Amino acid sequence: MSKVVVTGGAGFIGSHLVERLVADGHDVVTIDNLAVGRRSNLRAVERNGHFSFHALDLNDPSAAALFAGAHTVFHLAALADIVPSIERPESYFRANVDGTFAVVECARRSGVRRIVYAGSSSCYGIPDFYPTPETAEIRPQYPYALTKYLGECIALHWGKVYGIPSVSLRFFNVFGPRARTSGTYGAVFGVFLAQKLAGKPFTVVGDGTQTRDFTYVSDIVDGIVAAADSDVKDEAINLGSGGTYSINELVGLLNGPVQYIPKRPGEPDSTFADVTKAKRLLNWEAKVSFAEGVRSMLEHIDDWRDAPVWDAESIHKATEAWFRHLSTA
C-alpha cells in the first residue's frame, strides 16, 4: 500500500478517515495543528506502525517535507462554524485559503499523484433547487462558506494546471461520534447532545420544520476513499445521504423537551444533496439511515460530556454578530 497524507486528521471526519486508511494498510501521515482537532480522536491508531502524527500548521514551511513520497493527499484541515468566521475572517482566510494553497504547493513539489479536497455544501447558500446539483449557483452566505469554496477552486485549479488528478467532495451535514465539541456555538448535534446530558431543552431554531441532509460519517469516509481510488479528476461532487430530515424529527429521535428560538438569517430552509453524480462517477451512495446514525450518536453520548451547554440566552449572545451582519447582507 502507499503513503498518504491526511491534513486535519485529528478532527472529527479526519480521525475516522485516518482509522480507515490505516486499516486498509496505508502508511498514514497525519498533520493537524490541533486548533480544532484532538489527539484523543486518534487513540485507536496511536501505536500503529503505519501511523504518524505531526502537530504543525500547514503554513509552516517545515510541513513540506512530510509530503515527500506520498501518493495521495486528503485535505480536510479547516476552521469551521459560522459565527467565528464572521468575527475573525482573517483567521478563516489564512486557514482555509492560504492553508489550501500551502497543501497543493507541497503536493506539486513532492510529486503527489492525487488530491482529495474536503469541500462544503455551504457553498450553495440558499439554493433554488432541491435536491441541489453540483451545477447550482454558488452563493456563499458567510466567510466560512466562501473560504471553503475558494479552497475548492484552488485545489481543482492546481489539479488542472499542474496535472495532479484532483477532486472536491462537497459534504452535507456530516454527523457521527467525535463530532466537534469546541466552545463555539455550531453544529446541531453538539448542541443537542450536551443539552440532553444536562437535562436541558433542545433549542430548536425557527419552528423546527427546516430540514437537513444529515449524512453519517462512515458513509462520508467511504465516499472519500472511493474518490481516492477512482480515476475521476477535475470534478466537484456532492456527498449526501440521499434524504433530508427535519429538526423536529431529530428531537423526536433524541427524545426531550424543546424550546424554540428565532430563525437565523442566511440559513436555508433545507439542505438536500443531489447525489446522482456521486453514484455515477464513484459508484457511491450512503448506507446508514438517519435513525441508525442518531442511535449511534446516543450510544456515544459521553463524547459530549465536556461540551458547552447552550440555552436561549447564551445562544442569543453568541449569535449577535450573525444577526447583525447577515440580516442586512
How is this structure best summarized?
The chain is of the alpha/beta class. It folds into two domains: 3-174 and 215-239, NAD(P)-binding Rossmann-like Domain (Rossmann fold, 3-Layer(aba) Sandwich), CATH 3.40.50.720; 177-212 and 243-268 and 290-326, UDP-galactose 4-epimerase, domain 1 (Alpha-Beta Complex).
Number of domains: 2
Q: What is the CATH class name of the largest domain? A: Alpha Beta
**CATH architecture classification of the largest domain:** 3-Layer(aba) Sandwich
As laid out across the biggest beta sheet, the strand order is 3-2-1-4-5-6-11
Compute the gyration radius: what is it?
19 Å
The ordered H/E elements are: EHEEEHHEHEEHEEEHEEHEHHHH
Going by CATH, the homologous superfamily of the largest domain would be NAD(P)-binding Rossmann-like Domain
CATH level-3 fold name of the largest domain: Rossmann fold
Strand-pairing-aware structural class: alpha/beta
Strand content: 15-25%
Give the termini separation.
49 Å
General form: globular
- What's the average pLDDT? 96
For the biggest sheet, the summary is: 7 strands, parallel
